[in-house]
Amino acid sequence: LQFRIRRPKNFPPGPTPVLFFGNLLQLDRTNPLKDFDKFAQRYGSIYGLFIGSQPAVVLTGQKMIRQALITQAAEFAGRSDNMMISHVTNSKGVIMANYGESWREHRCFALTTLRNFGLGKRSMEQRILKEVKYICSHLEESAGKSIDLEHLYHQAASNIIASIIFGSRFTYKDEYFQTLITNIEKLTKIVIGQWAMLYEIAPVLRIFRLPFCKAFHYFAGIENHILKVVNEHKKSHVTGEPRDLIDCYLEEMEKRADQRSTFDDSQLVTLLFDLFAAGTETTSNTLRTLTLYLMTHTHIQGKECGGRLMKSLVIVNMSHLRTEMPYVQAVIHEGQRVADIVPLSMFHTATTNAQLWGYNIPKGTIIIPYLSSALREESQWKFPHEFNPQNFLNDKGEFVKPDAFMPFSAGSRVCLGENLARMELFLILLTVLRRFRLVWPEDAGEPDFKLIYGGTQSVKPYRLTVQLRTPGQTCKSVY
Ligand code: HEM
């Protein structure tokens, strides 16, 4: 009975499901995006699917996504409590927390804290620039050699978020750091993989020691590390002098001690995990894809980025981006558009029995915002299928952001790290391009821009050659 599939009344049309699997067998497991496109051509910009016996609705194109996530935000801002990742994290923290008081308070706390780190010596910008120094030193050591930037970008993005939340960074060679990052990667792979799918569609299997059990094991390891850091903070933190997000949280817990509050140690641990996990691969994969495009579109790398305008800047900072660099803004946004990092966003759920586009969407239905479809929607972009910063420039050369640009999703669940991520992309890319010329090696063949599908997408690993723009100049002389 559990596997019987019943299409709700007036549910959006879609392909016919089969017992137990629903429509899963009609989707290419290695990359379902082409199948999603085919269904959209056949059924329109909203259609219904079944993940096992669980009903789901796919939203295609910017208009439909905006309607559900912005105009009807409260109705479609839930998260599923039937997914493996919600069980691993106990639906705590922010990412997998259901739409309710605890999610709202933690999201608001995290956003305010990140915003308050906007100014002063410990500001986000300073923390990012500090990490950029390490990137530069590493690249200087690699000058003239062929290298793969994957680990460097990954560790740099991890360190930036670590310095904001834990107040400390790791050295790139630190084995413990490597293990932590690797465990997060392994955990992410499991929770979006096939075993997780079985876990979700056949709950009876959960009692067996199958490979999905490892996800709980990895999470426990990460949790232990985070708890250790939290306990150290409890001993050393001084009220009124927060060093990082943990200190801010501990102060908030003290303030709310007498009230009924959703703030406690286990929520803190999951919140820290969320920020650390969400803030690493997303940013580093964007950097890696954008670097590949810049290297192989040399006319762009030679323009403002690292060229004419860059040379006149002594220190790169965020105010330059807003005031003086529409072209650079356009390049970075175009990089994010083609990098298409989170193609299916995070799945939402309907928080109530809702209506969308005239269809009934019962409470609990999974909502899949197909973000890639908006990022390459032919009616929305001047050049939907090529890398071209003109997509973000008007006739006067001013920066404009089309509504279909939504790599961070939209509405009340929109990415909480959007500002941080944009700051990182700008400061890391520009400082690196100002100091180094990144060259596609002559013997490397044709660059491959194809994205490898995953929870976060990226181009295949590649190697590049690093050249110093001004030989002899070191990072220290730049800062
Ligand atoms: C280029 C980089 C990034 C991209 C493309 C990106 C994209 C996204 C997307 C598509 C979502 C799902 C939104 C939804 O459910 O509709 C999301 C959620 C989230 N992101 Fe990001 N993200 C990036 C960087 C970051 C960073 C650096 C952080 C760390 C501060 C972060 C923290 C989060 C959190 C906590 C959520 C969950 C929000 C919620 O459920 O309320 N992200 N992100």
UniProtKB/TrEMBL annotation:
Heme binds at residue 415. Belongs to the cytochrome P450 family. Keywords: Heme, Iron, Membrane, Metal-binding, Monooxygenase, Oxidoreductase, Signal. This is Cytochrome P450, family 2, subfamily X, polypeptide 9. InterPro entries: Cyt_P450, Cyt_P450_CS, Cyt_P450_E_grp-I, Cyt_P450_sf, Cytochrome_P450_fam2. The keyword Endoplasmic reticulum does not apply. It comes from Sinocyclocheilus anshuiensis. Its cofactor is heme. It comes from the Eukaryota. GO terms for molecular function: heme binding; iron ion binding; oxidoreductase activity, acting on paired donors, with incorporation or reduction of molecular oxygen, reduced flavin or flavoprotein as one donor, and incorporation of one atom of oxygen. One of its GO terms (cellular component) is membrane. One of its GO terms (biological process) is organic acid metabolic process. Pfam families: p450.
